[in-house]
Specification:
Order of helices and strands of chain B: EEEEEEEEEEE
Oligomer: heterodimer
Mean pLDDT of chain B: 94
Number of strands of chain B: 11
Largest interface: A-B, 23 and 23 residues
Strand content of chain B: over 45%
Strand content of chain A: over 45%
Distance between the termini of chain B: 41 Å
Helix content of chain B: under 10%
Number of strands of chain A: 11
Largest sheet of chain B: 6 strands, mixed
Structural class of chain A: mainly beta
Order of helices and strands of chain A: EEEEEEEEEEE
């Protein structure tokens, strides 16, 4: 079965650089979510899109932005990177009110 | 805002023993979901509970949703080494909202 695809798997950036993370949700899932997970932490909600429209926003810094495109893939753009942005970034998709399917994540390291 | 609390944070279990992890929400939930994350992996959906007092079983795992829909538990019997990982509960206050994760219970199994 198709899963949620994220790219890249690993990313190393320097402080103040920009990073773009991509997510391809499961076809026909209507909602996409982005989560950030620090070491030993639970996933923290960043932002979600329902049918390509932003539906909810969590603790996402102003330096971050995201969108969902006409082909349903989503991108998380992160600018002016800081050391504290180093984390695992997960994308997940679901049908409304159902269980989420998570991608394998992008491990971002800011040096 | 909504908070989901989960205890214990760590659980060391001898292989073959049983254990339970508990989840409590500060607000009434429309449903609660449970996820398992293996070390270095991504959260994997286990189950969703929707009805007050609901109990669901998956082999050695028993999931329960409280009568007030504010708490839940996961009970694992005859723990195996394959049960190693972090178990997260995650609550939804309505079908359109985002999942709020608990802090997770990290399970270590001793052979």
């Amino acid at each position: 079965a198709a899963g949620v695809i994220q790219s890249p798997r690993h990313l190393i950036k320097e402080k103040r650089e920009t990073a773009t993370l991509k997510c391809y949700p499961i076809p026909r899932h209507d909602t996409v979510y982005w989560y950030q997970q620090g070491p030993g932490q639970d996933p923290q909600f960043l932002i979600s899109f329902y049918e390509k429209m932003q539906s909810d926003k969590g603790s996402i810094p102003d330096r971050f932005s995201a969108q969902q495109f006409s082909d349903y893939h989503s991108e998380l753009n992160m600018s002016s990177l800081e050391l504290g942005d180093s984390a695992l970034y997960f994308c997940a998709s679901s049908l409304t009110g159902r269980g989420y399917t998570f991608g394998s994540g992008t491990r971002l390291t800011v040096v | 805002g909504q908070q989901v609390m989960q205890i214990p944070q760590y659980q060391h279990v001898q292989e073959g023993e049983d254990f339970t992890t508990y989840c409590n929400s500060s607000t009434t939930l429309s449903n609660i979901q449970w996820y398992k994350q293996r070390p270095g992996g991504h959260p994997v959906f286990l189950i969703q509970l929707v009805k007050s007092g609901e109990v669901k079983k998956q082999k050695r795992l028993t999931f329960q949703f409280g009568e007030a829909k504010k708490n839940s538990s996961l009970h694992i019997t005859a723990t195996q080494t394959t049960d190693v990982g972090t178990y997260f509960c995650a609550g939804l206050t309505d079908s359109w909202g985002k999942l709020q994760f608990g802090a997770g219970t990290q399970v270590v199994v001793t052979p």
